[in-house]
Write a structure and sequence with these properties.
The structure holds 2 protein chains of 2 kinds. Chain A is mostly helical. Helix content of chain A is 66%, strand content 3%. Chain A has 3 domains: 3-57, no CATH class; 64-172, no CATH class; 199-419, MetI-like (MetI-like fold, Orthogonal Bundle), CATH 1.10.3720.10. Chain A has helices at 18-57, 64-68, 70-76, 89-104, 108-116, 122-133, 145-151, 158-166, 174-179, 199-230, 233-244, 251-262, 267-275, 290-314, 319-326, 331-359, 363-368, 376-385, 390-414, and strands at residues 3-4, 10-11, 182-185, 188-191. By secondary structure, chain B is an alpha+beta fold. Chain B has 2 domains: 6-236, P-loop containing nucleotide triphosphate hydrolases (Rossmann fold); 244-294 and 304-364, no CATH class. In chain B, the strands form 4 sheets. Chain B has a 6-stranded mixed β-sheet, sandwiched between helices. In chain B, β15 and β16 form a beta hairpin. Classes of the chains: A mainly alpha, B alpha+beta. The interface between A and B is medium-sized, with 19 and 25 residues.
């Protein structure tokens, strides 16, 4: 019934264009499919995508400054920071008006904490000034310039106003600069002082250690996956249960168990001392450093490496090895030239999984990492829950996300994501 | 069973046994000897031990007992990769991550053959199966028949003296199978290689082989040339397994002048050639090929016994007619007649007399 008209349009039996009648026929199916996905989609949107979006947007948000000090920001815009002179009375008056509103609403301390991330001292300056400025009337007590400088000498410092001007926009790149050990100054970007440069190092350490963990997972997991794929189904089932057993134990318990194993008077050290390999006074430091984190995380992430490898190896028929041997290849050549290349998709899938999981891992490094073995995620957690610098935490998180996506993209370009098989 | 002198033998199995579980023997006392250049097929139903024999020869299974010799030396303790035996597998086993040319170069590479010689040999081997144009393709881009051609040339590229084939055509359609059967036999004879071919398809075995070994229950039931196997089966298993066959059961009345008189279970008497029966009173199963049954009394000897038969079904098959009869209580007695102009077409319900020459009817084991 594919009668085409003069203009090449294919018509259905009733004369409507075939494409339209096909899409009409498919519409119901599409709607039904969408309805099936909808509950989960809404759930994920509300509880995952939206909060993450909000969180990430905090990495550039700076609306607390222009919202708390709307008039000051506007008047301060006209001030030439490079002149080296303090702003004029208009700025102080505007600041006084803004502050009296903010003090009324008790919002000035929050602004102080926000600006404290950029320049230490702001927090206490706002708190102390707030108490005293409360007594002033924003209309009758003018002029304010000298009164304010008297209240806190910080208001007579050009740097204070420079910082306020630099951070007066709705959006800022300050958090991102902080996240890479730099900061925004009125003169432009500058590196943090040497002793405060820790985050780049931490990023580097997280990447390197994640690579080491992924590597050790490959080395330890490959033989197990091979065994799983090549023993009888009954034995394979038993082995698989052993591989999955750790999943049935709490992550916290497993990590704490490593603490028992690795600490200085822990199981391993005791045994080594008992054998006489290690002198009692010079026990090995196996925990609260990089080593502890690598060992514990390799153990915890190993199943994520084994399972994809296993599922790929299952699909490689043993006849290939036989074929290779019949052609004169030794066991090793047959494995290396024939079996191994076909198992690479499994290694790739496992590596991506383990690497991405470990780069954002938090609990294990927190417990066994000490100070030398912590990851960037521990720093993020610190800024979320202790320093309350959510903007910096969000910036760090965003960078982490971008690094993962970039690596994923690079992997796709080099190996090809089609070569990844999860099952 | 060896019908060639022992010192000519290239491949030899001597008293070979194989058991996987220590309880059952999969291969029981196998003796076989093959001269150089022979195309031998191991034919049998699944589980008859034929593939196990092939795998023992290739070195992937070890014999539980006995000796396997290649060119006079025992290979029991030689690992597969040192045996130098080419092998073609059922599902081709082409390496999916290599191109056709790389697949063929693989056995040469592991033999440390130089690049230029390697390329020359690869192209020559591809030429043998007319696949030169496909050197750069991946196995997944080829059809089943093409893949099997590549697998064949890969098994031949390193010029082995012995090639083993494990049901290589099992996954192909009928027409392709026939073409490849022809190609494989031609190639094997041209190159003078010794071939052991495993199949469960009797037509394949009959058309391709110099000799066929029929396997059943871990033993070779008969080892003979195809025509001999078809026309002179030595026991009722072989008679049943090779080609279409009618069986009737009865007791030997007497053996006289090379002809056994058999009384069928319903009392009728027939003539047969005694094969596995030696004296009167033995139970026997007589076997007669459908195309050897005669309806024309004038072609039989005057004193030949005949049987009454009722026509149950007449099937027109083009070149032949296939008629199903009830003979001596057996409803599955089939006769085949050529579609000749003067040939009668029997009607169901018709009663006819059938008979045969005594030498076409073989009295076998019961």
């Amino acid at each position: 019934m594919s009668d085409s008209t003069a203009n090449g349009l294919v018509l259905a039996a009733d004369g409507t264009p075939l494409k339209r009648s096909l899409s009409r026929a498919m519409r119901r199916q599409k709607i039904r499919a969408f309805m099936l996905v909808a509950p989960l989609l809404i759930f994920v949107l509300l509880t995952f995508i939206y909060p993450i979006g909000v969180m990430l947007s905090r990495s550039v948000q700076n609306d607390i400054v222009p919202e708390t000090l709307p008039e000051t920001v506007r008047v301060l815009g006209a001030w030439d920071a490079s002149s080296g002179e303090l702003p004029d009375e208009a700025v102080y008056a505007a600041f006084m008006r803004d502050m009296s509103v903010a003090i009324e609403a008790k919002r000035h301390t929050r602004l102080g904490s926000r600006l404290n991330y950029e320049k230490t001292g702001f927090s206490s300056m706002f708190r102390q000034s707030g108490r005293k400025m409360k007594k002033l009337d924003p209309v009758t007590d003018a002029p304010f310039k000298n009164k304010l400088i008297k209240i806190h000498k910080g208001w007579g410092d050009v740097e204070t106003w420079k910082t306020l001007q630099t951070y007066s926009g709705l959006y800022t790149s300050g958090y991102f600069l902080n996240a890479v050990d730099a900061r925004m100054t009125p003169e432009g970007m500058a590196w943090q002082p040497e002793d405060k440069q820790i985050l780049l190092k931490l990023f580097g350490r997280t990447l390197v250690m994640s690579l080491i963990i992924t590597g050790s997972c490959i080395l330890l997991g490959y033989p197990i996956a091979w065994l799983l794929a090549n023993v009888s189904p009954r034995n394979a089932n038993l082995l698989l249960i052993l591989v999955l057993l750790p999943f049935w134990t709490s992550l916290l318990v497993r990590t704490s168990a490593w603490k028992v194993m690795l600490q200085q008077n822990g199981v391993i050290n005791e045994v080594l001392v008992w054998i006489g390999l290690v002198p009692d006074g010079d026990r090995l430091i196996l925990i609260n450093n990089e080593f502890g984190t690598i060992v514990a995380m390799t153990h915890i992430l190993l199943p994520f490496m084994i399972l994809p490898m296993y599922s790929v190896m299952q699909t490689i028929p043993p006849v290939y090895l036989r074929a290779a041997k019949s052609m004169g290849a030794t066991n090793w050549t047959a494995f290396w030239r024939v079996y191994f290349p076909q198992s690479i998709p499994g290694i790739g899938a496992g590596s991506i999984l383990v690497f991405i999981l470990s780069i954002g891992y938090y609990i294990t490094p927190e417990i066994v990492g000490g100070t030398k073995g912590v990851f960037i995620s521990n720093r993020i957690a610190y800024h979320i829950s202790s320093s309350l610098n959510w903007g910096l935490a969000a910036a760090l998180g965003t960078i982490l996300l971008i690094v993962v996506l970039a690596l994923y993209w690079a992997y796709d370009r080099i190996v090809g994501i089609d070569n990844v098989k999860l099952g | 069973m060896a019908d060639t002198a022992k010192n000519d033998a290239f491949v030899e199995f001597e008293r070979v046994q194989k058991s996987y579980d220590g309880v059952n023997l999969v291969v029981k006392d196998l003796n076989l000897s093959m001269p150089r250049g022979e195309f031998l097929t191991m034919l049998g139903p699944s589980g008859s031990g034929k593939t196990t024999c092939l795998m023992m020869l290739a070195g992937f299974e070890t014999a539980t007992h006995g000796d396997i010799r290649l060119g006079g030396t025992s290979i029991n303790n030689i690992p597969p990769h040192k045996r130098g035996i080419g092998m073609v597998f059922q599902n081709y086993a082409l390496f999916p991550h290599m191109t056709v040319a790389e697949n063929l170069a693989f056995p040469l590479e592991v033999r440390k053959i130089g690049k230029s010689e390697r390329e020359e040999k690869v192209m020559r081997a591809l030429g043998m199966v007319q696949m030169q144009d496909f050197a750069g393709r991946r196995p997944s881009q080829l059809s089943g028949g093409q893949q099997q051609r590549i697998a064949l040339s890969r098994a031949l590229v390193f010029e082995p003296e012995l090639v083993l084939m494990d049901e290589p055509l099992g996954a192909l359609d009928k027409q392709l199978r026939e073409t490849l059967q022809f190609e494989i036999t031609n190639l094997a004879h041209e190159l003078g290689i010794t071939t052991v071919y495993v199949t469960h398809d009797q037509t394949e075995a009959l058309t391709m082989s110099d000799r066929v070994a029929v396997f059943e229950n871990g033993r070779i039931q008969q080892l003979a040339a195809p025509d001999k196997l078809y026309e002179e089966p030595e026991n009722s298993f072989v008679a049943q397994f090779i080609g279409e066959n009618n069986t009737l059961e009865g007791i030997v009345k007497e053996i006289k002048g090379g002809v056994a008189l058999v009384q069928l279970d319903n009392g009728d008497l027939i003539d047969a050639k005694p094969i596995n029966v030696t004296e009167a009173g033995q139970r026997t199963r007589v076997s007669i090929r459908p195309e050897r049954v005669e309806m024309d009394k004038s072609r039989l000897s005057p004193d030949a016994h005949t049987l009454k038969a009722e026509v149950l079904e007449f099937i027109y098959m083009g070149d032949i007619f296939r008629t199903r009869l009830r003979v001596a209580g057996n409803d599955d007695f089939v006769i085949k007649t050529r579609n000749a102009p003067d040939q009668v077409r029997l009607q169901p319900g018709q009663m006819i007399d059938i008979g045969w020459l005594a030498e076409d009817c073989r009295a076998l084991d019961a």
